[in-house]
Amino acid sequence: MRTDVWGRWIWFNNKWNHTELPNIPSYPSDYVQAVQATTVLACIFSIIGLFVFLAQLFTLPKGQRFTISGIFQILACLFIMIAASIYTDRFHVNEFVGNYGHSYILAWIAFGLTFISSIVYFVLRKK
């Protein structure tokens, strides 16, 4: 069994079958929606940060910092942290079968990388 925020995958008859998330107390729907929303917001702010960086790259005068890009990246970092923290705290509490999977690990790696990226944007000066 594999579970993520969008559905549950169960190995049955030698193939993976996608099912809806169960309607049990360990999967409260308001927390699922909060994780989904913050995940989407993290992607949106990360993409906006990239486009703002490209715009600032060509419009900023020399010696200026990429602070607006850094702000968008730190917001993306914050939303990734919120989504991963809610998922860690509220899901799979009483389950003993299965695991978090690679997406969960990638979410925490993405948190670290966006944090480093935001710090680089705050420190980086246009030369």
UniProtKB/TrEMBL annotation:
Which InterPro entries does its entry note?
PMP-22/EMP/MP20-like, PMP22/EMP/MP20/Claudin, PMP22_EMP_MP20
Protein's name in the database:
Epithelial membrane protein 1
Identify the taxonomic lineage of the organism of origin. Answer: Eukaryota, Metazoa, Chordata, Craniata, Vertebrata
* UniProt keyword annotations, A-Z: Membrane, Transmembrane, Transmembrane helix
Membrane-spanning intervals of the chain: 31-54, 66-85, 105-124
| Species name | Characodon lateralis
Q: Which family does it belong to?
A: Belongs to the PMP-22/EMP/MP20 family.
Q: Does Transmembrane helix appear among the keywords?
A: yes
Give membrane topology per the record: Multi-pass membrane protein
Which compartments does it reside in?
Membrane
Q: Which Pfam families match?
A: PMP22_Claudin
Is this entry keyworded Endoplasmic reticulum? no
